[in-house]
Amino acid sequence: MTDLELIVDAAQEAGALALKLQTAGLHIEKKSDGTPVTDADIAVDTLLKDRLGAARPDYGWLSEETADNTARLAKRRLFIVDPIDGTRAYMRGKPWWAVCIAVVQDGRPIAGVVHAAALDECFEAMLGGGATLNGQPIQASGTTVLNGCRMLGDDKMFAHPAWREPWPPMTIETRNAIAYRMALVGSGAFDAAVALSAKSEWDIAAASLIATEAGAMVSDHKGEPFAFNTPKARARSLICAAPGVYPLILARTSPIDLPN
What we know:
Distance between the termini: 38 Å
Order of helices and strands: HEEHEEHEEEEEEHEHEEHEEEH
Strand order of the largest sheet: 3-4-5-6-7-8-9
Number of strands: 16
Number of helices: 7
Strand content: 25-35%
Radius of gyration: 17 Å
Low-confidence stretches: none
């Protein structure tokens, strides 16, 4: 079984477990940073760690719901996992959450899956092999102008008066899961996703491969590419866009200074 086959099967099993636990009723707590975590987040994390660890015992592990172990930094290959990306949507019964798994080698994703179980949408990609949604090839949009584009992000951010040049009229929507937003850009359903706040590697590792294999461009707000399996396991921002609008977005975001 290839790495991609392994993580797709595991993601689908994890998604089914999350749906089952959601139906049964969730126990919700808050983490030290104030963000919510459910018993399903932990159960899915345990399932994936056991399943993937048994299949690839020599791989490292980085997950939102597992205490970080710096031993991963010495691993050439590792799994980067978000058991339930979009926990708030999941808690509220909204469908915009996903199980996200990437296999990263030498700092670069080589296989990735974003499984939106409530929507029955499974995005997957392998490095150099293109990206698919439910087995069908996907491609980023051919949009070349910001005016009227379909944007995923915070409408208040785009309307903020501090921008040097106001953004043109756009259709702006949001989805709770960052990875799902990126997958939607890869599929051409949206033209871009912009977030000027720090994102964890487990939010973006799998989806960055899916989006780029579908022809989208992915970087931070200054155009710097992402590296994975870093000590902080964080990126300072996210731009994921169709190639025609990517440079137009960077022209607006790159002058902004954000902490690393």
